Amino acid sequence: MTSPTESNRSVLFLGRGQLNQLIRALADDGYQVVGPTIDQAAIVYGEITSADDLPIGWTDVQEPGKYRLQRRDDEACFGYVVGPHSWKKYLFPPVTLVATADRTKTGWQLSTPETEPPRYAFLGVRGCELAAMRIQDKVFLGGPFVDPTYQKRRAAAFIVAVNCTQAAPTCFCTSMNTGPRCSSGFDLALTEVADGFLMEIGSESGNVVAARLNVEPATSAQLESGNAARQQAVDQISKQLDTTDIRDLLMNNLRHPHWEEVANRCLSCTNCTMVCPTCFCSSVNEVPDLTGDHVDRERSWDSCFNIDFSYMNGSPTRNSIHSRYRQWMTHKLATWHDQFGSSGCVGCGRCITWCPVGIDLTQEVAAIRSSQNNPSVEGAVNSSHDNEGVS
After folding, report:
1. Of 226, 315, 339, 347, which is least packed with CB atoms within 10 Å of its CB?
2. 94: helix, coil or strand?
3. Cis bond leading into 55, ω under 30°?
4. What is the per-residue pLDDT across 368-391, written as a single tens digit (0 to 9) for each?
5. pTM for the full predicted model
C-alpha cells in the first residue's frame, strides 16, 4: 500500500450521518468490517455492521495498571485511546492451523491447509497501530522466510485509520515518532470533528470507496477544526521515553541491579506481551484427536515471560523473573534494532495500562539511564555476577 504525501492529499468531508454509508460500502465490497465496540467494560475490536456498534459517547480512562470506561460529554464515535486489543490478532491470529496429519492404510499423510484469508476492513486504526503493522511487516515479510498466513491476511486488508484527538497518560507515541497523526499506510484516514469527519485518501483502493460516498471538499473552517482536534492529542501527551543511544544503554547494563528491583514487582503474567501490537513470539504444538488418527499442528501465541519459552538443553535459559523481564525490554527497545532496523515499541502504552502492578517501561529505562553518573550504582553493577539469560 502506498500513500501520497500529506501535502498532495486532498481532504474531503464526510457528514456524521454518512458514516454508515462508509461501513455499508465496505461490506458491499465483501469486507468484514472490524472496529471498536464495547464488550466486558472495555473498548475492544470486533465485527460491526453499523455506526451504532461503535462506542459512541464513551471514552477510556487509563493509568498504569488501571483502565475504566467513562461517559463523554459529547457523542464522539472515536473519542477513546486504545484498548487491550490490537489489530495483530487479525493479521497474526492467536491460534493458526499450519498443518495436519492423518493416519491412512499406507501411512501418515501430511497436508498444509489451503484456505482463503478473511477480507477485513479495519475501522479506527490509530497512528501507533499503523506503525505496529509496519514493524510486523518487517518481521513476517521482510526476511528470507515469508509467513504465508500473515502475508495473505495483510494483502487482503482495507485500512480506515482514525487520527487521535485525545491521549492517555500512558501514551508516548511522540517519543517513538509513530503518532498521533496518521501519515501513511492507510486506504482512508478520518479525523473526527463536531459535525462529521475529515477524510484523506491514501491509496487507489481508498479512492474507489470514497468515490461512492456523499463527500465534498472540506472547507477551510473544517480543516482548522481538524488541525485543532489533532493538536489536542499532541498537547495531552505527557509521558516521554528518551531513546538517545537506547540500544547501547540497555545492552551495556545487562547486570544492572535495577532488573532485580523490577522483578520484585513483575508477576511474569505475560499481559504486556499479549496486549503489545508488535510482539510475535509463538510456539508450535501437535494436537491429536481422541482416536489418535488425526493430528493438527497449531501455532499459538507465546511469551518470553513464560518460563518454558527459553527451555533448551534440559532446562530453561531464563529461569528467573528478572532475566525474563530483561529479555523482553532489551529485545523490544534494543536488539530489535539489530534484527529489524527499528525499535519494537510504538509508544501505545498498552503494556503500562494492562500491567496488573503498573510497571512502566519508560520509568525503568529512565532509572537505568539516571544511574550512569551514580558511582555507587556503577559499583553495584560491576560487582554483579549474574549471567543468567544474558546472550
Report:
1. 315
2. coil
3. no
4. 999 876 655 544 444 443 445 554
5. 0.90
